[in-house]
Amino acid sequence: MSKKIMVLNGPNLNLLGTRQPDVYGEETLADIEAACAGRGTALGLDVDFRQTNSEGEMVDAIQEAGAAHAGLVVNAGAYTHTSVAVLDALLACEMPIIEVHLSNIYRRDDFRQHSFVSKAALGSICGLGGHGYELALEALARLLEDS
Ligand code: DQA
Fold it and tell me: The domain containing residue 82 runs over which residues?
């Protein structure tokens, strides 16, 4: 049976493709979702792909993942840098968490260089665009195989 993985996207990531393409690329979130579904199938993972602009909905989704999913890939968008509520929800989860950012947050504004999400993530991938999500799924597949 395939293992269920949530891929959770935070605010403004629904705008990918038109939002600052010089920073975030031209891929849409639907493109990334399709790539994750394909990569997930190849890895034996069932990918539950989500996006929300709301902090409370992110917390709800993380709680749901903690109760029913084998792992979580999270790009919390701007909540990465601001949300203790998202961090607390992540810390309450037992499953492996991989943090993803499309852009290299360490080459950008100072305020983007602190991540609350990193405190709960096993690993972080940033700066590789949509490919980072596929790499995160690969990492989770390996971690879940080993566990
Ligand atoms: C982002 C980086 C964040 O700083 C920003 O607020 C985002 C997207 C990324 O994927 O590069 O919304 O998480």
Answer: 3-146
CA of 143 to the centre of ligand 1 (A): 25
Write the CATH number for 106: 3.40.50.9100
Checking if the pLDDT of 140 tops 80, the result is: yes
Q: How many domains is the chain built from?
A: 1
24 is catalytic: yes
Q: Which atom of ligand 1 lies at the shortest distance from residue 75's CA?
A: 13
Q: Indicate if ligand 1 lies below 6 Å from the C-beta of 124.
A: no
Query: Per-residue confidence at 86, pLDDT binned at 50, 70, 90?
Result: very high
Distance 81 CA to ligand 1 centre (A): 9
Contacts of 111 (CB under 8 A, 6+ apart): 81
Q: Is the pLDDT score of 16 beyond 80?
A: yes
State whether the beta carbon of 80 lies less than 6 angstroms from ligand 1: yes
Q: How confident is the model at residue 90 (pLDDT cuts 50, 70, 90)?
A: very high
